[in-house]
């Protein structure tokens, strides 16, 4: 069934207080929920509670057990026909967490109990009004075996605990902040923890704990340091303080997403907690810092102010992603962070916008809410917030967020409430801007320039393609940050243009020389840019622009002038190639001030971006041409690549400071090119780096370069890595992924072989993503011309449909844009999607993706 925003109605009942009593047991768990229920509107209507995938044991109102005739129950709800206007409801349910492979509700991971309730998992724990606009104060009591579960955690502050005489013990937690059920959490198990503390700006001392399995406990320090930085940053930048005595984080190996912001008790995918220099790469460290921050920032943007309904998901996610992006930018290189975020937006969100699941940042309808934890909600949502900040300025934005937090604290609100806060705090009109929330699709802007009489005229047109359910679009309001550079590099003007019309002209006079335009600085709007700047103009930007994003983008555009026609024609244009080669040479030989940026500048546009820009995607061609260009650059620039490699030193400083990380990044970028020459001397160099490495960054980079090359001892290297790391699941994730994305043909047998490796498990989402998910991104191997890759994918999805529908749905989404591919890929994908559609017993998650894909 489809749920519509227009059908939203306020809840008829509220549950201001709830007490949950869990008897946790390996075989089955008994839950007694005691709720204070109050009618808030209507009269005489029945109470309808959400509930699924559990056993109702008993039901009582004001202490009196209900007979079977007094309620009705179906697969998704419980209806109590006659209820008073205010009463106590007691619900007893029985759960089987050890059999819960969907990882939603109460489940077990490595034998420990944990929960995931967002979006609709709480209804698998007890019958409840499982909707975000019903806020309750929770008291939770946990009882479990002392030996199996020495640790008993829930939301809020601990209030009491004790021993029973049957080898069990108990703990009670109380969370004073009213919250929706999706923020409920419990954890019970055999866990160790590291502890620290943080003193808030107003002087409250907060205890900070990170829990992990004992063998991982020495990998929690970076997460702890990141948490403290996040807490300080949110005070400094947004004036937001933490509001409980304790903040707990728990790392679990089996988790559907990245992490979850449950009040006072975050549950994390261990990938975003555990790190040391032996097992985690610099990228992993950055990922941990940003996800720890993201979940912490939710304490205000999500928990204190929450969502009225799930159509408002971007209210908390878009805003919180924007907050974590800016936090990371402040902690490291702002330009590199922006480049990575734009790359990811283009790879995932632009793809989504161009496919059958395209939806606005505030969707109008959905079938399965789990399918709407999307790049559009998260990443495009963050871009929309970023544009508002650009329009009102940093100070005006802070006034707006202050007003928002102040006005809506303790409430469940809408994206409209956020926009209104920004508007009212700045006395501006964002009526047209709101279209970013309701219109889907990626807008394009086309820029034309002319220069006469010392005047530069920029004519800018915008358009947005049709998307499902939206044939025609109105023009967006968007900030376009620009600057004008003289050919000498001098910046003569910088300003933010505001585009509001389908077509608009902007004039800049008094320019004795024709300037070079630095357009869309900082990627100030999430659009595609069509702007034919000459090679010379692009090279001026590469050399002189003080906006890191534009400098990088200019280099990318120069490379696209080589790659896109080459993909189309099947051959490389020599003139275009020389221009890219010369630009690379210049970058490699000029004095370098920013190694992290240089590493980014030396990367060709990703295969996924090339696919995104293609009219009809030729996946194999994209992969082959890109590889050819890498190899030619490698051969032609071997010596400068080697010089830069050697300058970084074999074993750079072990540490995580920006300088060391930048040096590793540049070193490993150049190593990739050196290995791509195919020369034995560079195989030896990489092999030496692999064996001598003192960080996982250096080890994995050398490993990847060799595994992706024609290195004759590849298999021995793969085996060596395996022997060394087979006991570390997060490192094995990398081992699977690097093999799955190797740019070579006939990889499918290897993938199938890897699925029977003892460290692989189809029940573990990280493993599915790192092997099967990574394989689907392999433009050469996945897109076999006999369709075997697609058949393999659908076989996996059919298997996962019963094990974990959320993961199954994500996986099949990778080919839901099948119409964008050239033949024969398009028809072969369609055939497999049809086969899947004809399966019996598809979960609603999978059904929504497949039916929309085939419509
Ligand atoms: N709110 C979490 C985050 O972004 C995501 C959890 C969503 N989980 C899910 N199963 N849909 O931080
Ligand atoms: Zn989030």
Walk me through what this model shows:
With 855 residues, the chain is of the alpha+beta class. The chain is built from 25 helices and 31 strands. Strands 6-5-9-3-2-12-15-14 form an eight-stranded mixed β-sheet, with no helix packed on it. A hairpin with a 5-residue loop joins strand 17 and strand 18. The structure holds arginine and zinc ion. Arginine is lined by residues 116, 118-119, 256-257, 259-261, 294-295, 317, 370, 373, 806.
Shape, per Cα inertia axes: globular
**What class would the helix/strand composition place it in?**
alpha+beta
Mean pLDDT: 98
Oligomer: single chain
EC number: 3.4.11.2
Pfam family, one: DUF3458
Domain Aminopeptidase N-like N-terminal: 35-183
Domain Peptidase M1 membrane alanine aminopeptidase: 223-433
Draw up the topology in text.
Blueprint: E1 3-4, E2 13-23, E3 29-39, E4 47-50, E5 55-61, E6 64-65, E7 71-73, E8 77-80, E9 86-95, E10 105-109, E11 112-116, E12 136-145, E13 151-154, E14 157-163, E15 168-179, E16 186-189, E17 192-199, E18 205-212, H1 221-238, E19 246-252, E20 259-260, E21 265-269, H2 282-297, E22 306-307, H3 313-331, H4 334-353, E23 365-366, H5 375-408, E24 412-413, H6 415-426, H7 435-438, E25 444-452, E26 455-463, E27 478-485, E28 491-499, E29 503-508, E30 516-518, E31 528-530, H8 535-544, H9 548-569, H10 574-589, H11 595-601, H12 607-612, H13 619-636, H14 638-647, H15 658-676, H16 680-692, H17 696-707, H18 714-725, H19 729-740, H20 748-755, H21 765-776, H22 788-803, H23 805-813, H24 825-837, H25 844-854
Parallel strand pairs: 2-12, 18-19, 19-21, 22-24, 25-31
Antiparallel strand pairs: 1-23, 2-3, 3-9, 4-8, 5-6, 5-9, 7-8, 10-11, 11-16, 12-15, 13-16, 14-15, 17-18, 20-21, 25-26, 26-29, 27-28, 27-30
Helix pairs in contact: 1-2, 2-3, 3-4, 3-5, 4-5, 4-9, 5-6, 8-9, 9-10, 9-13, 11-15, 13-15, 14-15, 15-17, 16-17, 18-19, 19-21, 22-23, 22-24, 23-25, 24-25
The structure holds arginine and zinc ion (ZN).
Domain Aminopeptidase N-like N-terminal: 35-183
Domain Peptidase M1 alanyl aminopeptidase C-terminal: 535-855
Family: Belongs to the peptidase M1 family.
């Amino acid at each position: 069934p489809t749920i519509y925003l227009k059908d939203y109605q306020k809840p008829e009942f509220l549950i201001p207080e709830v007490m949950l009593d869990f008897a946790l047991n390996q075989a089955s768990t008994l839950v007694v929920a005691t709720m204070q229920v109050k009618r808030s509107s209507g009269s005489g209507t029945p109470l309808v509670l959400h509930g699924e995938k559990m056993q109702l044991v008993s039901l009582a109102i004001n202490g009196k057990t209900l007979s079977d005739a007094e309620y009705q129950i179906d697969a998704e709800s419980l209806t109590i026909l006659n209820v008073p206007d205010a009463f106590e409801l007691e619900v007893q349910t029985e759960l089987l967490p050890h059999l819960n492979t969907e990882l939603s509700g109460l489940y077990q991971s490595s034998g420990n109990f944990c929960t995931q309730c967002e979006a609709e998992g709480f209804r698998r724990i007890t019958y409840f009004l499982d909707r975000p606009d019903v806020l309750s104060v929770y008291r939770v009591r946990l009882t479990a075996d002392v030996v199996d579960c020495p640790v008993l955690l829930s939301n809020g502050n601990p209030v009491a605990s004790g021993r029973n005489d049957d080898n069990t013990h108990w703990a009670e937690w109380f969370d004073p902040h009213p919250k929706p059920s999706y923020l409920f959490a419990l954890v019970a198990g055999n866990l160790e923890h590291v502890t620290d503390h943080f003193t808030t700006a107003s002087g409250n001392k907060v205890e900070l704990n990170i829990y992990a399995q004992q063998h991982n406990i020495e990998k929690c320090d970076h997460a702890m340091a990141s948490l403290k930085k996040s807490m300080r940053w949110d005070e400094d930048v947004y004036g937001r303080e933490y509001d409980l005595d304790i903040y707990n984080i728990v790392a679990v190996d089996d988790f559907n997403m990245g992490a979850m912001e449950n009040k006072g008790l975050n549950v994390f995918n261990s990938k975003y907690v555990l790190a040391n220099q032996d097992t985690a790469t610099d990228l992993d460290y950055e990922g941990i810092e940003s996800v720890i921050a993201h979940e912490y920032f939710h304490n205000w943007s999500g928990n204190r102010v929450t969502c009225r309904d799930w159509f408002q998901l971007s209210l908390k996610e878009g805003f919180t992603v924007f907050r974590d992006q800016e936090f990371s930018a402040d902690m490291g290189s702002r330009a590199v962070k922006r480049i990575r975020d734009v790359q990811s937006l283009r790879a995932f969100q632009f793809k989504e916008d161009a496919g059958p699941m395209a939806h606005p940042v505030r969707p109008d309808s959905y079938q399965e809410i789990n399918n709407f934890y999307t790049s559009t909600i998260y990443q495009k949502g963050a871009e929309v917030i970023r544009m508002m900040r650009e329009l009102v300025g940093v100070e005006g934005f802070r006034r707006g967020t202050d007003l928002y937090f102040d006005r809506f604290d303790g409430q469940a609100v809408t994206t409209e409430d956020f926009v209104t806060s920004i508007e009212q705090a700045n006395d501006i009109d964002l009526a047209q801007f709101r279209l970013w929330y309701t219109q889907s699709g990626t807008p394009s802007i086309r820029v034309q320039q002319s220069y006469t009489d010392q005047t530069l005229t920029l004519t800018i047109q915008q358009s947005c393609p049709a998307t499902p359910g939206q044939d025609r679009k109105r023009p967006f309001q968007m900030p376009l940050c620009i600057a004008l550079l003289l050919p000498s590099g001098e910046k003569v003007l910088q300003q933010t243009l505001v585009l509001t019309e389908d077509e608009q002209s902007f004039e800049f006079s008094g320019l004795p020389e024709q300037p070079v335009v630095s357009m869309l600085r900082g990627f100030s709007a999430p659009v595609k840019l069509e702007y034919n700047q000459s090679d010379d103009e692009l090279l001026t930007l590469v050399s002189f622009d003080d906006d890191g994003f534009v400098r990088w983008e200019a280099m990318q555009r120069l490379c696209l002038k080589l790659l896109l026609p080459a993909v189309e024609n099947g051959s490389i244009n020599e003139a275009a190639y020389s221009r890219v080669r010369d630009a690379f040479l210049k970058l490699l030989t000029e004095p370098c001030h920013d190694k992290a940026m240089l590493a980014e500048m030396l990367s060709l546009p990703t295969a996924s971006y090339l696919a995104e820009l293609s009219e009809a995607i030729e996946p194999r061609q994209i992969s082959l041409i890109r590889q050819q260009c890498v190899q030619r650059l490698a051969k032609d620039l071997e010596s400068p690549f080697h010089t830069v490699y050697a300058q970084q030193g074999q074993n750079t400083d072990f540490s995580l400071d920006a300088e060391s990380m930048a040096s590793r990044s540049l070193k490993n970028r150049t190593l990739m090119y050196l290995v791509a020459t195919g020369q034995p001397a560079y195989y030896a160099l990489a092999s030496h780096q692999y064996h001598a490495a003192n960080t996982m960054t250096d080890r994995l980079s050398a490993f990847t370069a060799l595994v992706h090359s024609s290195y004759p001892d590849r298999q021995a290297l793969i085996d060596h890595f395996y022997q060394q790391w087979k006991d570390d699941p997060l490192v094995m994730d990398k081992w699977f992924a690097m093999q799955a994305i190797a740019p070579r043909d006939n990889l499918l047998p290897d993938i199938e072989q890897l699925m029977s490796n003892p460290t692989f498990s189809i029940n573990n989402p990280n493993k599915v993503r790192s092997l099967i998910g990574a394989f689907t991104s392999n433009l050469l191997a996945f897109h076999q011309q006999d369709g075997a890759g697609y058949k393999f994918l659908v076989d996996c999805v059919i298997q996962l449909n019963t094990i974990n529908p959320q993961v199954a749905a994500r996986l099949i989404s990778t080919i839901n844009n099948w119409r964008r591919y050239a033949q024969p890929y398009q028809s072969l994908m369609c055939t497999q999607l049809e086969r899947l559609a004809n399966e019996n017993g598809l979960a609603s998650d999978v059904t929504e993706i497949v039916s929309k894909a085939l419509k």
